[in-house]
Inverse folding.
């Protein structure tokens, strides 16, 4: 009888431990660490610049916009690759079956969101957003990272920043 109680107690303990571990994993996947948050925001900036370069290319004064985007990408390729790896690691750590595929879906979504702003008013979009290419290209890594660490109320990340 005493053994049965011990085994029951151990079984209940294992279930509770398993549930708390699952809950911790669910909580960690529900929000981003500071590095993960910065990574998604940094990739949002990168995606935005790509859309600006492609969308505004044929506008007056648009020649060279895509090459500015390419220069920005080359200048910050190590940081951008780090951001990509950070998010893929986050997805993998949180049990996503195909983290690379999910990551590419996220990147496509980032580009699609900014593209929606251009639909119906390309001229207004290009007038408003084209200056960001020059500003971004002039940034060093420290300034770019500071920009990526900002919370944008009008463009939230796919997960909020964890509050600790």
């Amino acid at each position: 009888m005493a053994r049965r109680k011990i085994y029951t107690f151990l079984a209940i303990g294992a279930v509770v431990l398993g549930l708390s571990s699952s809950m911790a994993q669910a909580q960690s996947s529900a929000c981003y660490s500071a590095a993960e948050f910065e990574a998604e925001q940094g990739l949002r900036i990168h995606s935005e610049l790509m859309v600006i370069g492609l969308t505004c290319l044929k506008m007056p004064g648009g020649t060279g916009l895509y090459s500015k985007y390419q220069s920005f990408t080359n200048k910050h390729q190590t940081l951008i690759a780090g951001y990509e790896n950070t998010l893929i690691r986050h997805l993998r750590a949180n049990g996503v079956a195909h983290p690379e595929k999910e990551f590419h879906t996220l990147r496509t979504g980032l580009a699609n969101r900014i593209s929606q702003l251009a639909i119906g008013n390309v001229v207004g979009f290009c007038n408003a957003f084209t200056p960001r290419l020059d500003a971004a290209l002039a940034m060093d890594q420290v300034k770019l990272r500071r920009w990526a660490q900002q919370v944008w109320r009008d463009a939230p990340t796919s997960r909020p920043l964890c509050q600790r």
User: Anything to note?
Assistant: Confidence is low (pLDDT under 50) at residues 2-28. The radius of gyration is 22 Å. The chain has two domains: 1-30, 34-148.
